[in-house]
Every structure is written in C-alpha cells, then in structure tokens.
Amino acid sequence: MNSVSNLGLTCQGLCKTYQTKNGLISAIKDVSFCVKEHEFICIVGPSGCGKTTLLKLIAGLLHPTSGQIFFSQDPQDGIPRSALVFQEHGLFPWMTVLDNVAFGLEMRVKDKKERRDLSRPLIEKMGLLAFTNNYPHELSMGMRQRVGIARAFVSKAQILLMDEPLGSLDAQTKLILQEELLKIWKEDQKCVVYITHDIEEAIFLGDRLLVMTARPGHIREEIVIPFDRPRDLSIKELTEFAKMKGHIWRILEEEVRKSCG
Amino acid sequence: MDDLTGKKQRFLGLMREGWFTVFIILLIAIAWEWGVSVGWVSFLFFPPPSVIISTFIKLIANHKLTDNTGITLWRVFLGLILGGIPGLILGLILGWSHRLYRLVNPLIAATHPIPKIAILPLIMIIFGIGESSKVVVIALTAFFPLLINTAAGVQQINPIHFEVAKNYGANLTKIFTRVIFPGSLPLILTGLRLSLNLALLVSIAVELVSAQKGLGAMIWLAWQTLRTEELYVSLVMTALLGVFFNFFLQRIAIHLVPWKTEQRI
Fold first, then answer.
1. Is the pTM of this model over 0.90?
2. CATH number for domain A2-73+158-260, candidates 3.30.450.40, 3.30.1300.10, 3.60.20.10, 3.40.50.300
3. Which among A1, A74, B172, B185 has most CB atoms closer than 10 A?
C-alpha cells in the first residue's frame, strides 16, 4: 500500500479558548499533528484536557481560535468529510436502528429505500439485524454504540472521529467491541482519530498514540505502537505492552496531578 | 411472543380501567333512576337517566343535537386551525431562536393568562357580533398551549442531536425535518391536546353567552325554558366530545411517537 504515506489530516497550531463567566479559558493550545490515510490514531489525556474540543474542531462543529486544519480530500457528493461517533446520546431517539444508520447517507442518497438498503449490510455486520426496527431506548448501551459506529462507517466519510465511544460500557462488552471495531476498520481502512482515557484500549487499537497534557491541552508525546495487525487480546500479555502502558500511565499521572494542583 | 403477551396485557389493563368507569357510571345511573322513581330526587331538576337517554335519541332523530354539535365542532375546528397552526409555527421558531424567545417571552407571559372569554366583548367591538368574533376567541385560546409547548419541545432537544446532524452535513431543511420536528413532536402533541380541550371549553362558553346555535347555546336555551333533560343531553354530548378527542389524540400519539412508550399525553 503506497497510499499509507499520504496524509489524511493535518492539524497545525490549533488553539481554542472559551469565554466563560470567569474569563477566558484555554481548552487546547498549539496542537499540531498529522494523521496518515488509513491510520488509526489514539489520543489519551487527563479528563478535561480538551480532547473533545479537539475532535469537535476537526469535525467542524467548533472553529479554532487560531491554527488550521487541512484535509487531504475535499468533501464530495454529499459524503461528509468526517463522521463523529459520540460518547452517548449520539443516536436519534425518534428513529429506528435502521433509520439511525441510514442517516449517515442522508446527504448523499436521495432515495429513502436505497438509504435503508445500503444500511442493512452494516447493521448485519454489527450483529444488530434482529434489532433493525427497534428504537434506541430498547437497546443496551453496547448495542447503541454499535449503531453509532455503523452510522459512521456507512457514511463513507474518510475520517472517523471517535469520542470515547466505548467509555460507558462494561469491561466485557468493551473488549468485544474493540475487536469488532478493528475487524470492521480493517475492511475499509479509514483514517481514525480515537479519543479515550483507557490506556490499554489506546495501545490495543492504535497505530500511533498521542498523549495530551492537562489543560490547556497540547501534545506531550507521540508513541508509535509496534504490534503487528491483525491483533487480538493476547498482545495485552506481552511485556512490551505492559511496559508501554506503564510509561503512558506515568505521563498521565504527572499531568493529572498537575491539573489537580 | 413476548411482544404479543405484552400487548395483550396492556389491552387487558386498559379494558379493566375502561370497565371500571362504565361500572361507576352505571351504578350512579341506577341509583339516580331509583331515587327519582321513589321521589327522593326532583324530576324537574334531575330527570332520570332513562328520560335523558330517550331525549338524547329524540334530539338526534330530529337533528337538533347533531346540528348543534356539528356547529360547535366546526367552531372548534376553525379555531384550532386559525390559532393552532400559527402557534405551532411560531413555537418552532421561538424554540429554535433563543434570542427571539427572550424578546417575545415577556409578551407571551403577559397575554397568555388573560382568559380569552373575558375579552370577547372587546373582540366583538373589533370583529362584530357575528361568527368571526366567536372563532377569533377560540383561535386565541388554541394559540397559546401549542405555542408554549412547541417552543418547550424544541428547547428540550439534546444539543448533541443538532451536532450529529451538522456533522453529517445536514442543511437547514434536513435539520428541521429530521431533528427539530420529530424531536419536539411529543410536546407538540401535548400542546395539541391542551389546545383542543381548551378550544372545546371556550366554544361552549362563547356559545353560552352569545350564540343562537351550538351546544353551549342549547344548554342556555334549555335552562331558560327549564327543559332540564335537554340540558343534560347537551352536557353528556360535551363530555362525549371530550372523551372522543382524547381517545383520538392518544391513538395519534401511539402512532406518531412510538419511541416514547412512556408517553401518556
């Protein structure tokens, strides 16, 4: 794959400050990094370090105070440039599983029936076929996140932005979904920016890992994850895995202490 | 299987509730009938249920009841269309624009609590004593509940839903049809129910004071001529309309907002 070297996304000197009652608060400061096409990048950092802000900037939901974001491709034919998977509440409660997934195609495919037909294979892939016509409130948290992920994949957006999508799940469901996520990502490798506070998750999923500092967040360290793909859960038993985890934990601990004062 | 038994149970529960009401009404009717027959209850003031029912049938047969009910229903309908639709549209706009909401809200707070029937004389000065002033009062009544509930319905939509829609490139039309409208629909239906009930209430009230026809006028005429059985017939008909409206709206809600199973409008 020679396209691996192509850049999917470049962030340059991103800053975002918010106006609050107590004056200006700087959420992120001078964040620069790039993500190659087909690369899975994980961002870890202490809570409140501006991870979500960063993701919303890339998604275009917020505008940076300064700095720039470059995309390798222009959005085309109603394909959104990026698809954001939210932590929770990202699904429309008034739509069935099928229509929630099909919403990913809303801008590209005019015909409702076609949107639904294109969505069914992904619903099947995520193991939700039996719940096609159910509403989100009838599903478990794990299933809801699957729907959110299916919607992001069906949209054909080249950049997938994930904001702790598995953060609210129990440990077992989380492990299963991590493996499934890698499986589905392998099929059409999009560029993924995955935010998490779970270090193990970040090492297990990512090609590269960015560690952010406490607020105002910027990137403190970049770590290339050496494990070959396809990966399974057994890599968590390797000493290298444990060493890496320890290293990242020490950085995070330092940052968390800093933010607590 | 599970779903089926669930439905069956819900149906049985509803039946039980329904039967309980019927049972109570029957009990009162029997006591009433018996009370009149032994002379404990005045026939003139409280004609027995048997007489009310026979009068009911008679008034349907000679079209008096059906005509008057039709006229009341037509006024309710016109009022709901003329007041409810602007209320709905304005509610959607106010719910969406915080700035506009802050601007208009004091005005709503000031005008909403005024009993619309109390300004009938004023409206009659403006619109004349004919049909239009009656409809205007009903429309004003129907306007506010839909306006307020629709605005609240839009405001309670989780901001994440707007972000999702924007993230997937939704334009204004899509945001409206896929997020704002469906998201506020449960409260719109609550507003519709309030508007409809209040419109019926005010229609009867307006007819009591100023109409020649309609259920309210029928009640007033029956009272003036001391035909109490007709008075009761009109009251029963009004109650039946209320029951019918609410049943009808509940059906609509189950159909339109299946995602809110706990929704009891």
1. no
2. 3.40.50.300
3. B185
